[in-house]
């Protein structure tokens, strides 16, 4: 079965990150699948998959074919698209479109719009909803990832499941942290610290560094600042505060290593949708920064997400999380000088108590099943 | 070509051999680069109705229908009767055919609208983009709040509920956008 996966990189690595993860999960489920990835920004793809050559219009990546978005690859003519994943309603390249809608073709083709992750209730309504195209031969439908059983769920690849199980064994965590720390070139002897990962959009991190400093006086902290927009902001604030606790600026990590970091941490600050999904599955307390949207719609998305977490946390833990989350997300721009009024100290102090709730949230999400498996079933039902 | 973003209640477009008319817009969902317009449509070839979600980026062929200028003449139960302003012939559409558009018109109105015909049968109406309606119920107005940025629910003389600025009162005449029911201004 050949599946064409279309992806346009809007900004950052979130969109291509989800697509790369989805493609890996699909291949893992069925190694015989013929995946053709059509991507507009191969340089961004290379950051995640170093074997990708941004200069090449068509290339093999393992058993996948990767095609640059604007390249009129004859492969689409010789084997026209039948199953298309149009990720995040990204549209379709012109040449691909011509092959897909060729009126001479005798078979029905299917486009599935794999939408953005959202905790809002309409995700349930839209999941598997039929759509239309201009041609009777080309069918279209919508597939929603999400946080409920009525959606497609989250990607839970086998490797991540194994890693989750390993990190859940408390007695194994010190050794796992030692191994992970060695891989990240961390200073030895920090395995027992309270690990905090930081991955958000740009902001003034002075308040959060002050909170981490205060918490460090109660329990030693290790901060891991992920590569990306927040890293210079965080490290600048940390330097300005006189390096009050150990902190490390991480290099850009492969997805599998980043997953391990989230599983290893006692508390994480995460952003966007790809890392939100992983942090939710990791079952450890975290604070989410939603992608900034017009008319403060990111706050609607945040509140919808908090409503999903609420049943799993006690009222005190939830109240602290909700208050800090709203303060962290209330903003009209992402900039290094943006100073919010968030306080994460109550969350850090509450992390141990809240952990069981986040673990239960993760277990509920896992019980909904793997999004890639649901998607593959959906595609097989179509053809 | 017609983009999904151009589609409104009453729009008729083609998907392959099917011709569909939009009866009801059920909201715009989604975030960031992708948005989906959820709607109820009727296939006017088969008569089947269904709910579906259209991506904003999708393009369709507009169905070229015959349009006749008419006025709503009277309503008899679920049947809405329109009169052609040139031939004075009368044509019927059901409440279901009209969908959301029933909330914007009454027989007392003076405005003309366009009735679309497919195979000589009326299938939908296209309203003027802006119409005048009267508020029949809302909470009392807030004096001094003329910003128009804060809204409250209000019932119109057609019976539907829309959002209006706080300064509006019962009896206020307002101008509405029939594409999405949004308040334009006080008339």
Account of the 3D structure:
The complex is a heterodimer of chains A (383) and B (187). Helix content of chain A is 43%, strand content 16%. Chain A is an alpha/beta fold and 383 residues long. Chain A has 2 domains: 167 residues; 210 residues, Glycogen Phosphorylase B (Rossmann fold). Chain A has an 8-stranded mixed β-sheet with strand order 3-4-2-1-5-6-8-7, with helices on one face. In chain A, strands 11-10-9-12-13 form a 5-stranded parallel β-sheet, with helices on both faces. In chain A, α6 packs parallel to α10. The longest helix of chain A is centred in the C-terminal third of the chain and has 23 residues. Chain A starts with a strand and ends with a helix. With 187 residues, chain B is mostly beta strands. Chain B contains 1 helix and 16 strands. Chain B has a 6-stranded antiparallel β-sheet. In chain B, strands 9-8-7-10-11 form a 5-stranded antiparallel β-sheet. A 5-stranded antiparallel β-sheet of chain B has the order 14-13-12-15-16, with no helix packed on it. In chain B, a hairpin with a 4-residue loop joins β13 and β14. The two termini of chain B are 35 Å apart. The relative contact order of chain B is 0.15.
């Amino acid at each position: 079965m050949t599946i064409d996966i279309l992806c346009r990189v809007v900004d950052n690595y979130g969109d291509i990150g989800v697509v790369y993860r989805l493609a890996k999960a699909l291949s893992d489920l069925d190694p015989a699948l013929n995946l053709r990835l059509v991507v507009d920004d191969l340089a961004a793809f290379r950051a995640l998959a170093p074997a990708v050559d941004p200069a090449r219009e068509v290339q093999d990546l393992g058993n996948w074919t990767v095609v640059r978005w604007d390249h009129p690859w004859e492969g689409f003519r010789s084997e026209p698209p039948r199953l298309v994943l149009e990720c995040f309603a990204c549209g379709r390249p012109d040449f691909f479109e011509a092959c897909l809608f060729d009126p001479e073709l005798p078979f029905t083709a299917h486009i599935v719009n794999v939408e953005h992750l959202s905790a809002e209730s309409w995700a349930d309504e839209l999941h598997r909803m039929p759509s239309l195209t201009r041609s009777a031969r080309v069918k279209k439908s919508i597939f929603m990832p999400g946080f409920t059983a009525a959606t497609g769920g989250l990607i839970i690849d086998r490797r991540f499941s194994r890693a989750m199980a390993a990190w859940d064994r408390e007695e194994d965590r010190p050794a796992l942290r030692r191994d992970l720390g060695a891989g990240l070139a961390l200073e030895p002897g920090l395995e027992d610290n309270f690990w905090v990962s930081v991955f958000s959009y740009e902001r003034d991190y002075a308040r959060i560094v002050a909170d981490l400093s205060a918490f460090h006086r109660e329990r030693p902290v290790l901060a891991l600042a992920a590569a990306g927009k927040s890293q210079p902001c965080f490290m600048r604030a940390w330097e300005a505060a006189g390096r009050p606790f150990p902190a490390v600026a991480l290099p850009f990590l492969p997805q599998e290593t980043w997953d391990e970091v989230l599983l290893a941490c006692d508390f994480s600050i995460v952003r966007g949708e790809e890392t939100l999904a992983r942090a939710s599955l990791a079952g450890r307390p975290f604070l989410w920064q939603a992608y900034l949207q017009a008319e403060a719609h990111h706050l609607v998305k945040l509140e919808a997400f908090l409503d999903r977490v609420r049943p799993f946390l006690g009222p005190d833990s939830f109240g602290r999380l909700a208050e800090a989350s709203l303060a962290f997300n209330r903003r009209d721009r992402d900039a290094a000088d943006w100073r919010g009024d968030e306080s994460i100290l109550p969350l850090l102090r509450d992390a141990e108590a809240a952990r069981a709730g986040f673990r239960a949230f993760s277990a509920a999400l896992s019980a909904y099943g793997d999004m890639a498996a649901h998607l593959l079933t959906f595609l097989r039902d179509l053809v | 070509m017609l983009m999904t973003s151009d589609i409104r209640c009453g729009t008729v477009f083609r998907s392959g051999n099917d011709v569909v008319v939009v009866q009801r817009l059920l909201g715009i969902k989604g975030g960031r680069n992708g948005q989906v317009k959820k709607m109820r449509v009727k296939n006017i070839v088969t008569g089947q109705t269904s709910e579906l979600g259209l991506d904003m980026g999708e393009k369709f062929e507009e169905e070229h229908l015959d349009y006749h200028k008419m006025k709503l003449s009277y309503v008899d139960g679920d049947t809405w009767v329109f009169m052609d302003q040139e031939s004075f012939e009368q044509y019927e559409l059901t409440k279901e055919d009209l969908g959301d558009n029933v909330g914007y018109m009454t027989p007392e109105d003076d405005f003309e609208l366009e009735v679309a015909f497919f195979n000589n049968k009326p299938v939908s109406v296209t309203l003027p983009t802006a119409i005048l309606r009267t508020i029949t119920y809302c909470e009392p107005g807030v004096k001094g709040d003329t910003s128009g940025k804060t809204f409250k629910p209000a019932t119109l003389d057609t019976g539907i509920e829309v959002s209006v600025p706080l300064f509006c009162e019962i009896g206020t005449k307002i101008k509405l956008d029939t594409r999405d029911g949004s308040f334009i201004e006080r008339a």
